[in-house]
């Protein structure tokens, strides 16, 4: 029976596409930006993610 146990399922990684868009040369400040996800956990164990620019 169910005993309150939880199993973590591993997610399959996405395959990166072979067709890439060539990079464009940056010629001015603020012409190209980057974004990233940052994840962490609070002291109570709750996880969160933030999108940074």
TrEMBL record:
Organism: marine sediment metagenome
PANTHER family in alphabetical order: BLR2054 PROTEIN, LOW CALCIUM RESPONSE LOCUS PROTEIN T
The name this protein goes by in its record: Uncharacterized protein
């Amino acid at each position: 029976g169910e005993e309150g146990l939880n199993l973590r399922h591993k997610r399959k990684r996405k395959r990166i596409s072979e067709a890439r868009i060539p990079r464009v040369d940056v010629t001015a400040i603020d012409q190209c930006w980057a974004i990233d996800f940052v994840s962490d956990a609070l002291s109570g164990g709750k996880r969160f993610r933030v999108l940074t620019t």
